[in-house]
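re: that chain from earlier
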Amino acid sequence: MSRSAKYLEAAGWIRERILSGELRPGDRVESENELSGIFGLSRQTARHALETLVEQGLLERVRGSGTYVREGAGAEQKKEQLSDTVTIVSTYVDSYIFPRILQSMIQILEEAGFGAKVMLTNNELETERRLLMRYLEEESRDPMIVEPVMSGLPSPNVKYYRRIWEKGIPILFFHSYYPELTIPHISMDDVKAGRAAAEYLISQGHREIGGIFKRDDGQGPRRYKGFLEAVCQAGIPIREERICWFDTLELKDGLEKNPWILKRLSGCTACVCYNDQVGHILTGMCRQAGIRVPQDLSIVSFDNSELAKLNSVPLTSIAHPMEKLGEKTAEAMLKMIQGPREDVTYEFVPEMEIRSSVFPFSNSNP
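^ sequence. v structure.
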């Protein structure tokens, strides 16, 4: 278990005993040394766990004597006590990055004593709406970790998230977020990622750069924004006709069936692809059309998944944090459960894995 989760576990252990009535007002709680021994913490971390509960009004320190349960502690919390099961809402569970995200997330939650219930939306607004309406109708008190549906488009479901949030229930978005809500999120910094992908191609001499982006997920527009920032900073003219946009249904139906993609990339020496799946599809389309990757068209994609490594031309790819994102999300949720509301938003800085799908460009390329 990570150090952050250990500290949260210690605070949660004491808090639960107060709410259950095992510890009553005036009872002395474990000292820093005792907590250190029970949970394997440093004294500083044990002290932080106790101070957190003091700030929440559950404990009080008596100089020279110890730390005690405050009078009336937990009365309000008992009324609105949260469930010990976290509901995780994900678009998919079998897509190439999600198993690793969810596994690490669930492991951290279970180590801290919470159950996890996974629900899927298949990236469908109506399915998301039904899940949220049922959650409200059942008056659930489960904290929620959510990957939002089609976060690149206006959503009619934000009103349900607002209602849940206003009930005092922790909600944390992962992988993406609805920008119109102030709910915290854990994700990659997709603007920086898009900028890094384009900057790398520019550093390799490319100026005729196209892009393939997903319009209905928030990552697509944000990666495109970073792409534009890099192109503009390099003084390269913006060529909208070289940008291809697709949505979830077009990807399901087979992106390779769309001849307009290669037509719009005509004249490009390089392309930024929304993810490794799209980079893999583009590689196959190029092979069918007699376009050499990377000699004729260099490709940079996102996620650094196994698909990037196994592509017929291994893809240079911006790494998705996957397991780290799952762990960070779970730890942030535990922090939200234990303490007053605070913005736990965190965006991972992108890192690039360079492989053979990018060819340095010069006018003399064969």
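The chain has a mean pLDDT of 91.
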